[in-house]
Write the structure tokens for this entry.
Amino acid sequence: MAFEFHVSKAARVRYQFDRALFQTTGNVIIPDFPAARAFAKRMNDLADQTRYPDRVVHAAELNAMGLIDEISHHAIEIYRRTVNSNIMAEAMAALAAQLAPDRLDQALVRFVEQFPPLAVYRDGQDPALYLEGETEGLPNREIALEELLLLWLANVNPAFATFDELFDDKDLAERTDYDDVITGLKEFFDNQPGFGGEGQSLIAFLRAPALAEPDSLAAQLRYMRTRWGLVLTSFLDRLIVSLDVLHEEEVALWMRMHPTPGPAANTVGPGLGGIENEYERFSQDRDWMPRVVLMARTTYVWLDQLSKRYGRWIHRLDEIPDEELDTLAGRGFTGLWLIGLWERSRASQRIKQWRGNPEAAASAYSLMDYTIADDLGGEAAFEQLRNRCSARGIRLSSDMVPNHMGIDSRWVIEHPDWFVQLPDAPYPSYSFTGGDLSDDDRVTIQIEDHYWDASDAAVVFKRTDNWSGEARYIYHGNDGTSMPWNDTAQLDYLNPEVREAVIQTILHVARQFPIIRFDAAMTLARRHIQRLWFPEPGQGGAIPSRAEHATSRAVFDERMPHEFWREVVDRVAAEVPDTLLLAEAFWLLEGYFVRTLGMHRVYNSAFMNMLRDEENANYRRVVKDTIEFDPEVLKRFVNFMSNPDERTAVDQFGKSDKYFGVATLLATMPGLPMIGHGQIEGFAEKYGMEYRRAYRDEKIDDALVSRHEREIFPLFHRRHLFADVHDFLLYDVYDPGGWVNEDVFAYSNRAGDERSTMTVAEGWCSARSVRDWGCTRTASGTRSCASSARVWSSCGRARTCVGMGSSWTCTPTAARSSSTSARCTTGLRANSAGLPSGWAAQAWRASRPRCGTCSSLPSMTRSAAWPGRTEAARFGD
């Protein structure tokens, strides 16, 4: 890869550029992206960036400018080969006839003096003598005339303005007939055969990108890509990679200006689109899995809170009181996710302490090794806790962090080849002069200096072998959405040895924990491993400096032929089968992770985000879309109102009816309910992954706990009734005007002979009079509902539901068939003696009904059975 452009003699003297960069014509040749970064750094080191911040030179733009110049030269060469091989000689003759005697030679001599080729600049040849010679068979006068034309094109291109001190043509214009030469060239080419698809003159063709996109080098390259196909035959891959590098530099600049996580993305539903073309391989649940109700606890914070509550030191896992475990079991929890059990990176702790938090522990996701931390009591204390939990029907859950390790981990010390890395720092501005973060005398570990003052976010750290002196620049873990995780080292999943080592580690974890949560699992889907770390040409830009390491799809597929997660699921099923695998996966991959890759459960962040924002219609659409696509996906969602990476449930939902309405949905919809640390107690503090204790002195909200005990915990104990999807029905509730009330969540389910119907008005009573539902509001502001509803299917099942507040309990009634039973429809009808006449409900089924009057039914799809807005039959029709 080689980019070229003009650099004046004055700029060469000022910046003392490496002479090896200059070719015989005097243009700069930049062979690769590191050379471009070194060139840019040289300019920036001598620039006044405080007074002229817009004059900061960016290496990606330098590359783009050089590529545009090189492509322009190539276009002239194609014109020479395909239209007129003597075009520059004829142009020279036309100018000589048009200008005063010797004026053309004076302009060319002055150009060679100011933009000297190597023979003049390095060897001291006289400019006039140089013009009398030739280079590789071409007369130097013709070469100089072509370079002069390209110099003018650079100066009239607004997007080149940042670099104009390199090729300023003002002196030429003031002291020679430079402007007349350019005018003469335009007139000459206007009378020559056209070029390109539109038959433009050659100069008009070369100027077109800058005229169409005057302010953007990237846009000019895109213009060339779409319109200069013939010219770009040998440049296309380089152009695409250059666009990727420009995008990467924009990302890197944004990170420098915003040393905090990036803005949150718009709330979207879990990803289902596109997976209909993927194979279906759900993992089958063990009998206990659908009944899991998971409690999350940040381990060190929890132990500190227990110490204060019980008035004694509780620092080890085997010191957790039996009373706490009894309480969890009594509330219906069957899973306990302990965050931060593994031995953590000591370098991570030092980074956080050196940056201002002397109490900080290491991050729970920057790991030294997968052994239980010594200060938590080690393996023996863990084994004792696991046995006590098992005796109470509680299974322990742990994190597995598969995409990275701590920067001082055992793997970084002993297996440095397992990580994504470079032999040199990707950016010349990076420096590594800070303290050594390694406790192992075999290596020195240093993060980039600008992390210490939060002025930049480097993508690599430096590992130096103290015995050989070899330096490696290993990439930090990074998901491409915000800042690199500066205490982590990114594993290289194109290395089969790495994949096998991680799988063995997962099997080790599975033998200790029956529930494993995989952190940031979506980053290890094949499509995202390539997108982030080995992008195809044209697909880079997620992580700064990786676009220049573009990898074709064919090469990537050869090195990683199968999905890593599918192999993990199959190996765990074969070797540790009684393990529930739970994936933290976003990026519209939720359906893919459970249906194709075989994870037992996957995060469903739409539950939290949409219901918090009262986007009730959107969330009902999520449920309907999932039912229509495959109800088994709905069963495999992990629903939560908070998680350790998000604001607390109290912060997002409050403590009153809105909270309990959503908590009721959490407890009674298919999927795995997950409760956050401090959610039941009403704690508002979000605990960082490095916290050893809570920093707020928050008291348990006894009233909130009591309401959970009355309304939520009894539902947890009946998860068997709500967890499955075979008989799950979601109702559209219609008002008398025939419109669906999207704020009402009405659904039913069954397990054997037990049935349930739930009705939750989420945010609805503020929009419509509660009397529409036969409800009244008491003086204290609470809502009281006492209405019965007759709900039946056309296949003969019937039940009467009686409800108070947001929850309805249903008991079977005598079976009957409606007047439409012969049609074997799957819709259900509902009406209430206490509701206004005309209210009705229609169900979205999660499965086909089973009853004596229906032998078979078509699958429920929007296009067939539910076109547009469903019209529900009203009671008495």
The chain is about 35% helix and 15% strand. The chain has a mean pLDDT of 81. The radius of gyration is 35 Å.
